[in-house]
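Let us practice reading a record.
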Amino acid sequence: MTLPQDLSAAPVSDRNPLRLPDPPATLIREADDIFDRAAIGAAIVSACAEASDDRALRSDVVRILLAARKAGNAVIAEGFIEKPLAAREMTRSYTWLTDCLVLSAHYIATQAVHKLANPTDSEKLALFGVGGYGRGEMAPFSDVDLLFLTPYKITAWAESVIETMLYILWDLRLKVGHSSRTVKDCIRLGAEDFTIRTALLENRFLGGYAPLAKDLNTRLEKDLFKGTEKEFVEAKLEERDARHIKQGQRYMVEPNVKEGKGGLRDMQSLYWIAKYVYHVGRARDLVQKGVFHEDEYDRFTRAENFLWAVRGHMHLIAGRPVEQLTFDLQVEVAERMGYEDREGRRGVEHFMQEYFLHATATGDMTRILLTKLEADHAKSEPLLERIFKRRRKIKDEYEVINNRLAIQDDAAFLSDKLNLLRIFEEALRTGMLIHPDAMRLITANLDMIDDDMRNTREAQRIFLDLLLKHGNPERALRRMNELGVLSAFIPEFEPIVAMMQFNMYHSYTVDEHTIQVIANLDQIEHGELEDELPISSEIIRSGINRKALMVALLLHDIGKGRDIDHSILGAQIARKVAPRLGLSKPECKTVEWLVRYHLLMSDTAQKRDIADPRTVRDFAKAVGNIDRLNLLTVLTVCDIRGVGPDVWNNWKAVLIRALYRQTKVVLEDGMEALSREHRGTEAKKLLRKQLKDWSKPELKAETSRHYPPYWQGLHVTAHVVFARLLKDIGDDEIRIDLHPDTDRDATRVCFAMADHPGIFSRMCGALALVGANIVDARTFTSKDGYATAAFWIQDSDGKPYEASRLKRLEQMIHKTLKGEVIAAEAMKSRDVIKKRERAFRVPTTITFDNEGSEIYTIIEVDTRDRPGLLFDLTRTLANNNVYIASAVIATYGEQVVDTFYVKDMFGLKFYSASKQNALEKKLREAIEKGAERAVS
């Protein structure tokens, strides 16, 4: 954030005939390699002498400068690739190259095309760079923002100069933003608009009439800036808050490097505020002003350099100005910056972890600056303090400074190691924010948190009370995490701080996800999610071991990032950490089990057919008792909700609730309560109640035409629909019923038609062609030869189809099933993986399970998702005489797990290893061919 020197004072010489600016001290390559002022200047002077008219001159000059710009850009890009972390050299090089181009155009306009021998006072013109260009920070495709300043109303001569300059710059393919104003205009417009005021704050004189530049800055300071510090600071903070709301308050996995939280715009906002209030030209001057410590400033400059390096590489890779660090760009930027795969993690994951650590540094610096501003009365007191205006009673060792909890005596505070934890307890107890000076003291003394301190009962009590007693564990954990206290107290937590999970499923870093999960529990405990999470709310009310649950939530992902299953490693870590936090032996065993099996309920509900009694029986056996079931249910719900803003939905809620209720019945009443016979009898009884208008023969025919799995696999509402679809159906008829299932956030599609091989695959193809995302599917064959299939589908936004779209949807499905559209051919144009998703590595795993169901083999296909995948898989199974009874689809971003309950053509399971291997080979071929199609 250091401004380059005034570049306008370069002398005229044979080496510099256009009086172009001297290069700054550090460039990415030699100055003459970037822009040879002597050679290019001589060529322009020669063109001025030889051109027959102004049009020819402009054409010759543009040709010379365009070649110079292309060559200069190439040299800078090559230098930056060779020195990928040299961000400051990169930004200065682009700034200096732009200065040379802009001032060359200025020379042509003022000294060749519109030269005035004796300009009057009104015909004086000064040229400034403003915004990022004025600041001297330019990425490869940054805009060039110019201010043309005149002492009085703009003259015809000045208009001509500006027009000629702009045409030259536009012909050079520069993206120029410009304004033409007087000093008086600048003062008036700056007073009305903070964006203009901010641009003026960063003005840099480039060339022209120098006294006008001095006059502008004197008047700005006297008539605009002075006395308006508070309103400027408040305006910039409002802009920042609005920007964070738009981009995401948390560190999102595809961050906007410029506008996102902790990004370059936050850094620039800090600089604008500092310059406006403290009148500094460089961020380093804030150290002399006592705002920052030297080590804080160094941390900030490292973060700034890193983010600018990232932005520069993004622009060069994309060949255009892009600010969103998308997944595909992350991989390429990481490679350019030298990150490699190691320790079981991809280079891109190491790169993004460092990105988020640097983004956090920006937030820390901003917090320190704002507190300093409060002390100097350049920022209003916090809103809550203005509303309540009450003095909280605090403990003797603390004091209140600017409405924040501060430490009275640093030496006394540090005389007891436990105070490094107690201050967070006091902050929660009083509801106060911690003063940045106290934060500085804590971070400077993290080494005091040693094994002796961790193992004291009082330290354990304080930490657990922060999680369980004071009502806002999220706030305590987030601040402890930001200051490094959490990792110091639990060293095993340190590897997951700012750790990114390189996939489309998780929206947050691992540490932020953990804090979000705990925040979800806090919301449930406060009764804020009663309607949305009735079972979890009831479990909490009924009384559970909050201590074991909270510690399990804190540790559930602590094993991530290594080349071992994170649930297994996490359980091993939990076995060491839980006793250190003061938990009893039974609580430690519970925590270890919860961490080891924290995905069990989610996987069972989303990847298995929970209508199959064996699924529920096996899950109940793994859980063992009601207490563990209750704890695991709440943990699962909090975990899924903590993945991202839109991950939890009614579909997942229905699955989790159904699994919980059925498992509870088994644990309380035994497996017999869920037997096939019992469920079949109950289902038929419910159907008879619903079809009161049917005759007894009709009811008997309907209840006897289906096999047992049909009665246990569907709700009575679906049984009613199928009964009506099948009534008097002809062999050549295809009957379809589409109905929004609001309880599951999906549209239910029921098919009834004569059964024949491959019918399930054709249904999948028909639904894929209309753009439907299949989230669950069941298919059954009746005793009299009809196929009944139920699909639950969502649109591309993961929502049920609107009622107005259902009729057209049904018509398109009919066309495909009747053969009017060949699904395999039509799918080719739609089966495409988006560019930003191609960076993910999703290995394919195919497993066969003959124990998870009494009558079916379960084939689980875990691979990359794409539009036509389910159709390819089901068609392959059909072509190999595999009968599909049901399909369960679980999607995790770019990864999908398709689970099929199948039999062979004789109604038997696939026990033979040779048959399994042959089928696996065919499925892999189908996946690979589809993948080739998707990226071609």
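A brief commentary: Residues 1-8, 383-391 have pLDDT under 50 and may be disordered.
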